[in-house]
Amino acid sequence: MAETPKTLTLLGALKDFGWLPLTLLSIGGGLSIIDISERIVFDNLTLATPFQIILDGYHRITSLIGALVEPRFQPVADWLNAQFDWNVHLQPFWQSLFVLAMVFVLGPIRSMWRDGRWGTSALVFCFMGPSALVAALGVGLLPFVDAWWAQSLIAAVPLGLLLLGVALGGAVYQLAPPSYPEEAWDGIVLLANLGAVMLPIALVLGAALSFVPGLGDGAGVLVLGGFVAFIGASQIYYGLEEKDLEKCRTGLSMLGGFVAAALVLLSNWVMAMVSPATQA
Question: What is the distance between the alpha carbons of residues 71 and 69, in angstroms, rounded to a whole number?
């Protein structure tokens, strides 16, 4: 196992907190320098320019995800329509939901990787990554997104499948050498307890917030983001209390991803005020 620092330094905390926002910016902002240069040359720099660049980068990420997944998923939707006489199609919000779910996935994976547990991180990704994708695609097929029950499902289904993915990964991990049955099963029991508490809350909050003016079809995503932030903050709290560096890193990574998502929402709101056509 790789040697890692035993204490959390300020620099290390900043790296853990900022790596996901910077990664997303790097992936989505490959043309940002060109964007900025064009605005400088044509004197188009405004106070809204930074928000536009963030939103453009986010749109590049979701467009890339859509281009990779949607053509391969379309035959499934066509089969469902043919078998059950439905008329369902993927709602555009599934991409945003998938990005948010991956914040939950990438936090613990990066922490395990930095701790030298490469095999474990790969195993967790194999279960949690597909869980995030299935959850996003599943709720993305909902026909009536504005309905209260749809927002309830958008909030709860991804959370439930992500927790299930972690639990399945833990079950497989305890069978693989070197095995730590007590540690793995304790984690599965903890996740089951978390699910028993959080899933009903997510169902209720998603439905309730759908009636709040201005939230509408964003209620479920807001609830899911809140749970991601809550779990991240809890990981930091228990990591500090138990002097568990991996938990601290996981929590910081998740909170960093939550802040990145909040910046996208803020940018979307700012640009909607400037020009409604730019809304995500």
Answer: 6
